[in-house]
Design brief:
binds pyridoxal-5'-phosphate; globular; 326 residues
Length: 326
């Protein structure tokens, strides 16, 4: 007999226990800004960070509707596929990862973990990957391709970027307000697809803002996508049409997954050595770097109290080992 557990309610209870810690960071204190860190990297040892929130509603829906196999898309260092594999193993789903690019001679550490957790990996050419990932999970072509090879599957979009992903991320905003409501005015979060930013903003009271730090070099229509995701979450709430979220750019440090410039690498080292807080090079590093630069430019009033969400991703440090010499 399987016991029905409400995975969303269970995750919210865990979210309420995620530590929020005051950060002692002299460079930021010199700017008169107070920063706490919400440690979602500690949310769960197997499925850390924002990806668990983004998956939880899909896990729940797939289970309710009797799907036994989950499939999604990602690159060789994808935190999303890593989390999906671990979640599948934990909650009894088969998982398939459709991976961008030809099969390499040796798997990345991320994909090695995913395979060990039971994920079946299907490598597709970059062109084929873009066609599949960009068409949307309800496209007949995508469904046909997947069902021909893998049978009946619950399909999750690349990066967990969907209304379900966004709704799951509202748990972060709700939990944070519950835990730490009196202590902060604004929340900072790194942005890839912006799904987490939109969810956090929608989960916060309208008078508090979430500010997203884009890690992408070219942002394309990212802001428009965030606005759509946000509006889907807040349609029944009294929020201004502009929304209680902001997106800032200029802190991509060369682009997604690229080798870091020397000044950013030094920032990374100095930050970790002083604070003891480990960062991932793709997302959280760029957010903390961005927070400091904005603070130094006077972006916030002195005395502003911020919370930065540590969205995890630390498994990705392994791909950057050559740049970490401290
Ligand atoms: C995926 C990821 C993000 C970005 O989340 P989005 O919802 O795509 O914006 C941020 N931080 C980490 C560590 C991630 O793995």
């Amino acid at each position: 007999m399987t016991i029905a557990v409400d995975l969303v309610a269970e995750l919210y209870q865990r979210a309420l226990r995620v530590p929020v810690e005051q950060l002692t960071w002299s460079a930021l204190q010199d700017c008169g800004i107070n920063l706490a860190v919400r440690r979602d990297d500690l949310l769960d040892s197997g499925i850390p960070g924002n990806k668990f929130y983004k998956l939880v509603i899909d896990l729940q829906s797939a289970r309710t509707r009797g799907f036994s196999r989950l499939v999604s898309f990602g690159g060789a260092y994808s935190n999303h596929l890593h989390a999906l594999a671990a979640a599948g193993e934990r909650y009894g789903f088969d998982t398939v990862g459709i991976v961008r690019g030809d099969q390499p001679a040796a798997l990345s550490p991320t994909l090695r973990d995913a395979a060990k957790a039971g994920m079946q990996l299907r490598f597709v050419s970059r062109e084929c990957y873009r066609q599949l990932a960009d068409q949307g999970t309800d496209s007949p072509d995508v469904i046909r391709f997947i069902e021909q090879e893998f049978g009946r599957c619950w399909i999750i979009p690349e990066g967990g970027a969907s209304d379900a992903g966004c709704r799951g991320a509202t748990l972060i905003g709700r939990a944070l307000e519950q835990q730490w409501g009196e202590e902060f005015q604004q929340v900072c979060v790194p942005c890839g697809t912006g799904t987490t930013l939109a969810g956090i903003a929608a989960g916060l009271p309208a008078k508090k803002n979430a500010i997203g730090f884009s890690v992408l070099k070219g942002m394309g229509n990212l802001g428009a996508k965030i606005a759509v995701a946000y509006q889907a979450m807040t349609a029944n709430q009294a929020v201004s049409s502009a929304g209680n979220w902001r997106l800032v750019s200029g802190f991509h440090a060369g682009g997604y997954g690229k080798k870091l410039p020397e000044n950013v690498r030094q920032f990374w080292r100095d930050f970790e050595l002083e604070t003891g807080l480990l960062l991932d090079p793709v997302y959280t590093l760029k957010m903390f770097w961005g927070i400091l630069l904005l603070a130094q430019r006077g972006y916030w009033r002195k005395g502003t109290r911020l919370v930065a969400v540590h969205t995890g991703g630390l498994q990705g440090r392994r791909g950057f080992a050559a740049q970490i010499d401290w």
